[in-house]
Design a protein that fits this description.
This is Uracil-DNA glycosylase-like domain-containing protein. It comes from Aestuariibaculum sediminum. This protein has one domain: Uracil-DNA Glycosylase, subunit E, CATH 3.40.470. It is about 35% helix and about 15% strand. It has 6 helices and 7 strands; from the N terminus they run αβββααβαβαββα. The strands form 2 sheets. Strands 4-1-5-7-6 form a 5-stranded mixed beta sheet, sandwiched between helices. A hairpin with a 3-residue loop joins strand 2 and strand 3. The longest helix is centred in the C-terminal third of the chain and has 16 residues. The chain is globular, with a radius of gyration of 16 Å. The two termini are about 25 Å apart.
Length: about 210
């Protein structure tokens, strides 16, 4: 599939969503061999996904990250909070992981594309995985890292899998054969060293 064809198909998939965040990567998503998958985005950004996209080069992650940091800085603080980190806990850990997976490319996505502060706020109609399945079928990653108990449970239910946390297992999802590693959510309990080690491990699974 060519990038222009990918864009056309993705636009069609997203047409019913307002400000979705279907993926984050550097450049052409078709070149990504590693997926990082959560349940859904916690932050709906003011700038639309397509404002960071070009038909020639794909997604401009550096520009997106700059916008993310600015929007996060300007967002009102929650009650009793006096400061906010530049990056969320999850975002910081993803950045550490992705840095260590280079030169292989990593695509961040979620099982559900609707952004809500918590997954509990997803409506039943938001809990559909067609965009993720399009990305999986089109890109065919070598390994998928999923984080968080809720997304693990949905994977098992949607795709009739039995996943063991902290172990790499081979699965076939809707005709696509890949490896899956499931671990705790990246928002808590992850040191910088543990995140970097995970990045190295994911890279080793692409090589092998």
């Amino acid at each position: 599939m060519k990038l222009l064809e990918f864009e056309k198909s993705l636009r069609q998939k997203l047409k019913s969503y307002e400000k979705p965040r279907p993926l984050i990567c550097e450049g052409n998503p078709l070149e990504c061999e590693i997926f990082i998958v959560g349940i859904n985005s916690a932050t709906e950004m003011q700038n639309d996904f397509w404002s960071f996209w070009s038909p020639e080069n794909g997604f401009n992650k550096a520009q997106w990250l700059e916008s993310y940091i600015l929007e996060r800085k300007l967002k009102p603080l929650k009650p009793n909070k006096t400061r906010r980190n530049k990056l969320s806990n999850t975002r910081q850990r993803i950045e550490w992981i992705v840095e260590k997976t280079k030169p292989f490319k990593t695509l961040e996505t979620n099982l559900f594309v609707k952004a809500t502060p918590t997954a509990d706020e997803l409506l039943s109609e938001d809990r559909e995985s067609s965009v993720f399945e399009f990305l999986l079928d089109t890109i065919k990653p070598k390994i998928i890292f999923i984080h968080g108990n809720e997304v693990i449970e949905y994977f098992e239910k949607l795709y009739d899998l039995k996943i063991t946390k902290n172990e790499v297992s081979k699965f076939e999802i809707l005709g696509t054969k890949t490896n899956i590693l499931a671990m705790n959510h990246l928002s808590r309990g992850w040191s910088k060293q543990k995140s970097l080690e995970l990045g190295e491990f994911l890279k080793s699974k692409v090589i092998n």
